[in-house]
Amino acid sequence: MADPSSYRPKPGQIPDSPGVYKFRDEHRRVIYVGKAKSLRQRLANYFQPLTSLHPRTATMVTTAAAVEWTVVATEVEALQLEYSWIKEFDPRFNVKYRDDKSYPYLAVTMNEEFPRVQVMRGAKKKGVRYFGPYGHAWAIRETVDLMLRVFPVRTCSAGVFKRSAQIGRPCLLGYIGKCAAPCVARVTPEEHRELAEDFCDFMAGRTGAYLRRVEQQMMDAAEDMEYERAARLRDDLGALKKALEKNAIVFNDATDADLIAVAEDELEAAVQIFHVRGGRVRGQRGWVTDKVEAVDTAGLVEHALQQLYGEETGDSVPKEVLVPALPEDADAVSGWLASRRGSNVSLRIPQRGDKKALMVTVARNAQQALTLHKTKRASDLTTRSRALEEIAAALELDSAPLRIECFDISHLQGDDVVASMVVFEDGLARKSEYRRFQIKGFEGQDDVRSMHEVISRRFKRYLAEQARTGEWGEEEGQEPGEAPGPEPTGPSEPGLVPGRGSDGSAGPVSREVSAFQEEDGRPKRFAYPPQLLVVDGGQPQVAAAKRALDELGIDDIAVCGLAKRLEEVWVPDEDDPVVLPRSSEGLYLLQRVRDEAHRFAITYQRAKRTKRFKAGPLDAVPGLGDTRKQALIKHFGSVKKLRSATIDEICEVPGIGRKTAETVAAALAEAVPAAPAVNTATGEIMEEDDGGSTT
């Protein structure tokens, strides 16, 4: 525990202006991010006597070893920067709402020639219309199945669509009338797009006029004695009404609003959100979080708004957001929401009427979610604590191992040798810090040498990060998509010195820095040591891991291994294993850590093997990346046609210069085409696919 006075900045050094501040621990890890109207006043609150601080705040400031800040021009900019840093650094003392899934949306791909209706999760894509979120994917499919009778929009994948176009026959949905079959030109692209737009209008809540039009068409058909058409329209009308019944009307004025309610106790808080679009409840979602910082209801609401709308833009942010308590600076939050939407957003507490009544319902759901969560987690908290205590007692550790790292080696008969590193903190998997390695020091199968290499590389990076002898490059230790971002720039001097822009004024790019300014504090690197290092294996693997640590001069990390055969726990320099009872929670936790490392390693090893088996002649072309390979295949249609193309024809592909075209042509000329594959059932020779392998 650090003494806050040891890193407290002088009051004159802290600017009296809006900004965002970071606390770092002794390992340079960002542990808390906050914003303030006045940095001077807010930071002064953290350096009061510990007895006058909230217990959680006291824990944070004694864990910290440094503080730094960034000055911004407005409070809205402070809110934006705070959200960005919380997402980037994942600080342990900030409230973070986590749910166990990505909520599904009903999506219409209006950016395609023939729009497709489908279930989508994850990041939003440009040109796609989204409706939801929904609690379950099956709820979307049920609604779509009802509406396809009236709006027969394409729902098939690109592969099915292309196949139907090639054979000239639609899929089953085309035959039963639930798809307009644009794949076989039953409708024109314009007619199909009009169907998709009608579908979107109906989902957006513009239902009344459409229902009246269908009903009138039904009556007209009956009067004209077109009874079959009238019956079909009657069934269409029934399907639409049934789809609408699944979303009860809560507001009669076609309101678009999100209602947020919070239920909390001293330790945890639950947030529930109801999404109302066109006066109907279109979706519901919720989170439960530990109150790791001293925060009231207004603060929880602000964090929820950041979580909910931090990645959203446009119509995904509604015109109205109803909350149980307004954030401390409601005007700044409203301005931030308006900037996300592109127009004004009303942020308020409902006082009366239907909105107040629905807020009561949302609050009731939040309370039920918190109660259910506490019921499920009560034994879990106790079990995890007991497991960590049992491990500490069995291995004679000074304290419970709050951070555990486990390493495993995977290969297939000596080929594609890889390793994995998984991280458990407080007994729970921390997947953002998982890492995977390729074995580079030697060829062939040797689990002991592989383990020594991986442990050495991991902790060499740790020591390098501690010494700050250089920056990190993008290597195999990073997960896909986790490339380092730009390092903060600015002067680095002892203490905290207010930074200024080139014109002498404070601005969003002006940074106040500490001795750690060049550090980014990202938890996505190897900068933080575990209390316990676990290897998958017995005495030889444990000895290799211990030898790697000894060679690096690291003597404050406990090492053990878990052998699969008898689930024995091996420790260095001991001839006999530590035997934990089969019913031990500590043994169960070590097994989960080991099994997770094995799963992660074998997943990577299989991916590498699959990629190697699927390698085509283009993979041998030096300097030709995936983007340009795809462009070549898309342009020519297959590797066979590309092989017969001239250099001038290859140069016509965007991004391909003459030198690259010559290299591609030479590589394809040297490559020997694979023998054709034969379908054993039909005797037909199968054609090359786009990657050059046979299918």
UniProtKB/TrEMBL annotation:
Residues 259-549 form the UvrC family homology region profile domain. CDD domains: GIY-YIG_UvrC_Cho (cd10434). Residues 208-243 form the UVR domain. Keywords: Cytoplasm, DNA damage, DNA excision, DNA repair, Excision nuclease, SOS response. Gene3D superfamilies: 5' to 3' exonuclease, C-terminal subdomain, GIY-YIG endonuclease, UVR domain, UvrC, RNAse H endonuclease domain. Residues 16-95 form the GIY-YIG domain. It holds the Pfam family UVR. InterPro entries: GIY-YIG_endonuc, GIY-YIG_endonuc_sf, GIY-YIG_UvrC_Cho, Hlx-hairpin-Hlx_DNA-bd_motif, RuvA_2-like, UVR_dom, UVR_dom_sf, UvrABC_protein_C. It is found in: Cytoplasm. Residues 467-521 are annotated as: Disordered. The keyword DNA damage applies. The keyword Transcription does not apply. Belongs to the UvrC family. The UvrABC repair system catalyzes the recognition and processing of DNA lesions. UvrC both incises the 5' and 3' sides of the lesion. The N-terminal half is responsible for the 3' incision and the C-terminal half is responsible for the 5' incision. Interacts with UvrB in an incision complex. This is UvrABC system protein C.
